[in-house]
Amino acid sequence: MAGQERARDRREDDEPVDDGPDTGAATAAAQQRDAEVDALLDEIDDVLETNAEQFVRGFVQKGGQ
Amino acid sequence: MTVRRVMGIETEYGVLQPGRPNANPMLLSSHVVAVHAAARSAGRGKARWDYDDEDPLQDARGFHLQRAAAHPSLLTDDPSRPAPSGEAGAAGGASDGDGPQAVARSLVDEYEDPGAANVILTNGARLYVDHAHPEYSSPEVTNPLDAVRWDRAGEQVMLASVRALASTAALPDVALYKNNVDGKGATYGTHENFLVERAVPFAELAARITPFLVTRQVFTGAGRVGLGQRGEGAGFQISQRADYMEAEVGLETTLRRPIVNTRDEPHADPDRWRRLHVIIGDANLLEVPTYLKLGTTSLVLWLIERAAAGDATDLGADLDRLELADPVRAVHTVSHDLTLTARLPLADGRSLTALEIQREYLAAVRAALLRLGGEVLDEQTTDVLARWGSLLDRLGTDPASCAREVEWLAKLRLLEGMRRRDHLEWDHPRLAAVDLQWSDVRPERGLYHRLVGAGAVERLVAEEDVQAAVTTPPEDTRAYFRGRTLARFGAHVTAASWDSVVFDVPGAPTLQRVPMRDPLRGTRAHVADLLDSAPDVRALLAALGA
């Protein structure tokens, strides 16, 4: 996915830059993590059970060890 | 000092027939196993499990549970009576030098109960139905990285079953999940096994390992949506298994589950070894947690062994000072505390966080290393120590940075993202669905596999190494003899177990049982030449007896 590629490229570019322990860098890292998660969520939307409630209700197991 | 020791992982998989929630799980599990039996028996024999040396009621505290007093779900050593579920209710060279033993041949074929479906794989693993779940018991390995490799091979074995059943119209479709809970009250296990020197008194072993097992979930937990055994509370917790731990020490595995299980069935020389059967752990899809779970536990066991041997008595005493006031409550506290700051009361009145207790164990292991130094550390030991320390540091300062390595954080990251994006509360079924579908073994369905595809999790084992491990055994344990024997002479193997292989040699008056009491014999170095040069099974047995 294009969005995801972008997210990964940006991380590689950002890593060598050391801005010191200021909050700007921390915020940028957090934003970049959010972008990664959003890309993953887009993928998951495509495969997640469409009827989540029914899937969860039907997931019944016997106890084991 | 080393992380190396004989170890293995058994995993019960969740089993469903999609669209049919009332399908019989024992029957589904039997199909999962039987498709491998059918594949194996094409042109080969069908080896059954050899139960002769099994004794699940032997208690490490030195007594033996009376069979009549045991809960039926613990009676796993009688194939004609499969153990039922425990709700409201098995690690392991060739001959030890004493050679093959004669075993009477049954006059009639033994009755095969489909519920006792059981296959021994050419990689040395056992695939069978345990209670109402298909279980993959990995072959014995000697190090954490191999444990990861043959554990992942198990995922591929399960995937092969799913595919085979999906392509056979006459058999039900099955979906398999590498997790431990259904969110309705049922749990099923992922057990680690470690051989530990018998010289360590069991009470000392249990006391010194307990605070470690209680707190290691901060980096081994797989994450779970739902709080309480039936998920009665909304929320997320670190561990799948935590809420089901109800006792400190005990023999049971299916009810009143203990932090330290006392099943004392070493499948090895009982004078030298005991088997620590760890039932508190979660099934992990991420490789780093499996690797560290086996690696760090092995290191702590090493320290406990050395302390018992008098090499580091003071360091053993350091561990004693970590005794928890209430270990069972602490398991739950740690699992429910996503901030990793909850303080756990200790028996001596102090209180420490889970991370602080883990740092105490790491410090004691490092101190023992300096003290008993002189040894050059092997690569995996160095790596496990470095990763353990790094994770404990980062979990304390920047947990989000651990999401590529720690499963509960990888899962939580997705769930929090979904909550933020879609404005969901923790009791929303989509979040529970993410948790369950996370562990679907099918790459096109399993959400963990989406993370793999996106490069969002760290991998330790190459895909081709996993594929090779599906059919080939580890080379440095007796699993090599078991697996290679089945691959080459499978038609003449009537039964096998962790510590035996039983041969039916054409023309021989009796069956021939080859005992394998030492897990570190029957390795490639020991028996490869013998196996490769024997033209037939008769020659193999003759060579083993020589």
By oligomeric state, this entry counts as: heterodimer
Shape of chain A: elongated
The amount of beta strand of chain A, in percent, is under 5%
Largest sheet data of chain B: 6 strands, antiparallel
**Number of helices, where a helix is a run of at least 4 consecutive DSSP H or I residues of chain B:** 16
Overall, the morphology of chain B is globular
- Report the radius of gyration of chain A as a whole number of Å: 19 Å
* Domains of chain A (count): 1
List how many beta strands of chain A DSSP finds. Answer: 0
Would you identify the regions of chain A where 5 or more consecutive residues have pLDDT less than 50?
1-20
* Average pLDDT rating of chain A: 72
Strand order across the biggest sheet of chain B?
5-6-7-1-9-14
Question: How would you describe the overall organization of this protein?
Answer:
- The complex is a heterodimer of chains A (65) and B (546).
- By secondary structure, chain A is mainly α.
- Chain A has helices at residues 2-14, 23-47, 52-58.
- Chain A has one domain.
- In chain A, helix 1 runs antiparallel to helix 2.
- The radius of gyration of chain A is 19 Å and the shape is elongated.
- Among the domains of chain B are: 1-54 and 90-178 and 474-546, no CATH class; 401-452, no CATH class.
- In chain B, a hairpin with a 5-residue loop joins strand 15 and strand 16.
- The radius of gyration of chain B is 23 Å and the shape is globular.
- The interface between A and B is large, with 29 and 53 residues.
- Chain B: One of its GO terms (biological process) is modification-dependent protein catabolic process.
- Chain B: It comes from Cellulomonas triticagri.
- Chain B: Keywords: Proteasome.
- Chain B: GO terms for molecular function: ATP binding; hydrolase activity, acting on carbon-nitrogen (but not peptide) bonds, in linear amides; peptidase activity.
